[in-house]
């Protein structure tokens, strides 16, 4: 009887976002012992490997070759080889094509092993001084339909996190300020964990003024205060029923009326819907 060969593991290994000391001991061990490292930029990762005297061979896996490389990596994993997936900086799969390889491995029933580690979004959030109990990570804004994307987030009450490159920073600040309002609070984190790490705190109006005369340098993470929730309207069940009856008589659909009143009162839509079913 022929033996069924067990597939290898895909390790998701975070790499430092600046300071090389931020790699974990486990991360170093995995990079030393896997058969292959799939790197976004082999030259960039090569400097990290050289620093820690790691001699594991690399193969490139990035935005421009991901389709051609995907099958090759899957085949090697299915043959029993172990592969470490790394990005240039931070957590693989976050704002890079690592997601597609991870999903392909899951679909092929190949074991995916994630390691915790450096991440620019969470690093910026913890030091921003804005609410961190609930947040939304948006990564890089799309180049097309970006205003549509921003308008969909205009009333988001949770803290927002974006990444941005220096050459697009001013335009992005202008777009965000136009949609969110110039007085909305934000924190601009620059060059996190590096020698020139900097946190700037203020609002969009002041940030646009600053970077209209200052050349942006380095990588940026923007942490933005969520929208202020409007005060809720306190209505009794009898008053809610009265409002529902008026809205339904105006031709407003039951579901739309319940949703609108739920937003106004802060009550659950289910509770209001039940009230709507008991109207005379």
Description:
There is one protein chain. The chain is of the alpha/beta class. The protein folds into three domains: 10-114, Cobalt-precorrin-4 Transmethylase, domain 1 (3-Layer(aba) Sandwich), CATH 3.40.1010.10; 120-224, Tetrapyrrole methylase, C-terminal domain (Methyltransferase, Cobalt-precorrin-4 Transmethylase, Domain 2), CATH 3.30.950; 237-277, no CATH class. The chain is built from eleven helices and ten strands. The strands form two sheets. Strands 3-2-4-1-5 form a five-stranded parallel sheet, with helices on both faces. A hairpin with a 7-residue loop joins strand 8 (185-190) and strand 9 (198-203). The longest helix has 13 residues, at 66-78. The termini are far apart.
Layout of helices and strands:
Blueprint: E1 10-12, H1 25-33, E2 36-39, H2 42-51, E3 58-60, H3 66-78, E4 83-86, H4 98-107, E5 112-114, H5 120-128, E6 135-140, H6 146-153, E7 159-164, H7 169-180, E8 185-190, E9 198-203, H8 204-211, E10 220-224, H9 237-249, H10 254-265, H11 269-277
Parallel strand pairs: 1-4, 1-5, 2-3, 2-4, 6-7
Antiparallel strand pairs: 7-10, 8-9, 8-10
Give the key terms:
280 residues; alpha/beta; Cobalt-precorrin-4 Transmethylase, domain 1; Methyltransferase, Cobalt-precorrin-4 Transmethylase, Domain 2; 3 domains; five-stranded parallel beta sheet
The profile of the biggest β sheet is: 5 strands, parallel
Total number of domains: 3
The amount of helix comes to 40-55%
**Name given to the CATH architecture of the largest domain:** 3-Layer(aba) Sandwich
Number of DSSP-assigned strands: 10
Please name the fourth-level CATH homologous superfamily of the largest domain.
Answer: Tetrapyrrole methylase, N-terminal domain
